[in-house]
Amino acid sequence: MATLNQNMSKAQHRAEDTLGAVKDAVQDTASEIKRTAQEGLSQARDSASQYLQEGRERALEVERAVEKHIRHQPLQSLLIASGIGFLLGVLFVRR
Question: What DSSP string describes 21-80?
């Protein structure tokens, strides 16, 4: 009977040790997944910020180019704007 109790006790300790090891492995894996996700999110945030900045710079370049064109050729710019307005008016009236 004592041997049976000793064997049961040893089995219980081994099970507890194994459970502890599994718990540690799961926690380590979860920590690694969390770290990887945070790194990916940080990289995505940096990329989005960079694309936003590049978009702003290009929009400013286009604005400056249009402004320069209007200042150098005001009559042509007025005629182009009138033509675009006329075409948009025709398109919206038809609908």
Answer: HHHHHHHHHHHHHHHHHHHHHHHHHHHHHHHHHHHHHHHHHHHHHHHHHHHH-HHHHHHH
